[in-house]
């Protein structure tokens, strides 16, 4: 093979590898937090099959967050599977001025959760279970109260249900037929 053709083939191969690197999403964009690892058992004829269940929250601290729950024979396998699942099931969260736009109460199974917007500087006032999801969603000031079950998985599913039900302020202004500015300041509409 002539030297020029060999060099050209090497350049094509290098460009192809470089293109693949660019198209893949950087793994460092998302922060991963393990909420719980629990040993679970399946009772079978020969005894018990032991495995581990992991609950993982993944987010970019800028409005995207995901929840993953998976089981595996080893703790590392369970965490890896849950992390991959969380990255595939990301949701967008409406964050306004580092808090949620409005108060919301949600119920998932026996868990009831109350989320309220908070003033700047308040921080995240929430349980150790709900805190990772709120932090990784990019919310910096919020009040969160669990009113029902304290099971970690139920609380996290309730938090994600709240994320789905929270709408941006523009949605409510359009729904009420008023300008966005009036929605926040409560000004009366000028009568004609």
Question: Could you please describe the fold and organization of this structure?
Answer:
- The chain is α+β, with helices and mostly antiparallel strands and 192 residues long.
- It has two domains: 28-91, 2-Layer Sandwich (Double Stranded RNA Binding Domain), CATH 3.30.160; 93-171, 2-Layer Sandwich (Ribosomal Protein S5, domain 2), CATH 3.30.230.
- Helices cover 36% and strands 30% of the residues.
- It has six helices and eight strands, in the order αβββαββββαβααα.
- It has helices spanning 3-23, 75-88, 131-136, 152-165, 169-176, 180-185, and strands at residues 31-44, 47-59, 64-72, 90-92, 104-108, 111-117, 124-125, 142-146.
- Strands 1-2-3-4 form a four-stranded antiparallel beta sheet, with helices on both faces. Strands 5-6-8-7 form a four-stranded mixed beta sheet.
- β1 (31-44) and β2 form a beta hairpin.
């Amino acid at each position: 093979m002539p030297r020029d053709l060999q060099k050209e083939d090497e350049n094509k191969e290098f460009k192809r590898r470089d293109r693949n690197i660019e198209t893949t999403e950087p793994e460092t964009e998302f922060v991963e937090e393990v909420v719980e690892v629990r040993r679970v058992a399946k009772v079978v004829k020969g005894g018990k099959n032991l495995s581990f269940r992991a609950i993982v929250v993944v987010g970019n601290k800028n409005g995207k967050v995901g929840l993953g729950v998976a089981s595996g024979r080893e703790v590392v396998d369970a965490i890896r599977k849950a992390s991959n699942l969380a990255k595939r099931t990301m949701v967008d969260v409406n964050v306004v001025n580092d808090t949620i736009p409005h108060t919301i109460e949600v119920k998932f199974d026996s868990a009831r959760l109350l989320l309220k917007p908070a003033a700047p500087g308040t921080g995240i006032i929430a349980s150790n279970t709900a805190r990772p999801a709120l932090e990784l969603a990019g919310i910096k000031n919020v009040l969160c109260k669990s009113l029902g079950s304290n099971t970690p998985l139920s609380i996290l599913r309730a938090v994600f249900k709240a994320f789905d039900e929270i709408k941006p302020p523009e949605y409510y202004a359009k729904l009420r037929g008023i300008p966005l500015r009036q929605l926040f300041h409560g000004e009366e509409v000028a009568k004609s």
